[in-house]
Amino acid sequence: MTSTFNSIKPLRNFITSMTKLVGEVSDEQSLISLTTPLLKALVAKDDWLPEFCSIPNTDFYQQYLLHADPLERFSVVSFVWGPGQKTPIHDHCTWGLIGMLRGSEKAQKYQYDLNGALIADGMEATLKPGDVEAVSPTLGDIHIVSNALPDQTSISIHVYGANIGAVKRHVYEPDTGLVKNFVSGYSSPLVPNLWDRSSEMRSELI
Ligand code: FE
User: Fold this and answer.
1) Structural domains in the chain?
2) N or C: where does the chain have the smaller number of CB atoms within 10 Å of the terminal CB?
3) How far apart are CA 81 and CA 100, in angstroms?
4) Rounded mean pLDDT for each run of 10 residues along the chain, 206 residues in total
5) CA of 74 to the centre of ligand 1 (A)
6) Is 0.90 topped by the overall pTM?
């Protein structure tokens, strides 16, 4: 499915609401429960993501920063999955919400068993447009995510409780038990311009 960019306003409104929220609450449970309906509303319509934040790469899934809070209390990222692309098994070291915008993705959580082996935690989830799923150190922070579609790009919008591209995190190799440090960064130096409201203002001119 392709979509036409209409207006950045839904993203700007989401970021305004998130900025207010992180100023009012700071515990993980409240942040997740209060962010969930905001993200659900954001991904309910697919007409606001700027084109340059929706472009897949043939080799790697892309992570386009949409916004980072100046105090790094949250960040919003567009994940773009080419056909067959997937993450390694990884953690986040903060809370996070995944909102499915376009296409479909699969997410499988992992946990350590009593012998210290990394095992699947519950069933694999398949996200469809409009679905929102949470990860966090409390709820289960280790997972693997993949594009569920073999022949199409999928896009999900992620919200994290930190500037996620700059967080020291971990990838896991279940066969060897190896845990490696990583910092994800972002796929582009550009972020969307949220603040050109001139067409809105011009429409109010007499
Ligand atoms: Fe993740």
Assistant:
1) 9-188 (2.60.120.10)
2) C
3) 12
4) 74 98 97 98 97 97 98 98 96 98 97 92 96 94 96 98 98 91 97 92 87
5) 15
6) yes
Q: How far is the CA of 160 from the centre of ligand 1 (A)?
A: 10
Contacts of residue 156, Cβ cutoff 8 Å, sequence gap at least 6: 43, 78, 79, 81, 98, 99, 100, 101, 105, 127
Largest CA distance in the chain: 72
> CA–CA separation, 76 vs 192, rounded Å?
11
CA dist., res. 116 & res. 118, Å (int): 7
CA of 11 to the centre of ligand 1 (A): 21
Q: How many Å lie between the centroid of ligand 1 and the Cα of residue 144?
A: 7
pLDDT at 4 (0 to 100): 61
pLDDT at position 67 is 98
- Rounded to whole angstroms, the Cα distance separating 70 from 75 reads 9
* Residue 68, number of CB atoms within 10 A of its CB: 21
C-alpha 123 – ligand 1 centre gap (Å):
16
